[in-house]
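> call design_seq(struct)
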């Protein structure tokens, strides 16, 4: 399967396969194993960009200046960058 992140453009595609699937209250939680380190890194960076963009939208004024967006992005990184470290994404998701 390919993970595609449309908001990042047509080339934001990361090959992998479904490694596990678990039923949860609101649907299913799916774990993806990527085919190589490059795909894994790209997918994690794409996820980080999407989360950062969402954070900025939640905290922005109606017409934020580039400086305000930059400040929000830096704030998000200072709070969440550890979640995207190499150690965080190579550990097993299931016990």
């Amino acid at each position: 399967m390919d993970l595609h992140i449309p908001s990042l453009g047509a080339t934001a595609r990361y090959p992998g396969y479904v490694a596990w699937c678990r039923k949860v209250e609101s649907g299913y939680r799916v774990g993806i194993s990527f085919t190589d380190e490059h795909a894994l890194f790209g997918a994690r960076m794409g996820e980080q960009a999407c989360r950062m963009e969402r954070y900025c939208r939640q905290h922005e004024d109606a017409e934020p200046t580039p400086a305000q967006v930059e400040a929000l992005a830096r704030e998000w990184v200072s709070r969440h960058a550890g979640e995207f470290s190499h150690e965080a994404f190579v550990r097993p998701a299931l016990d």
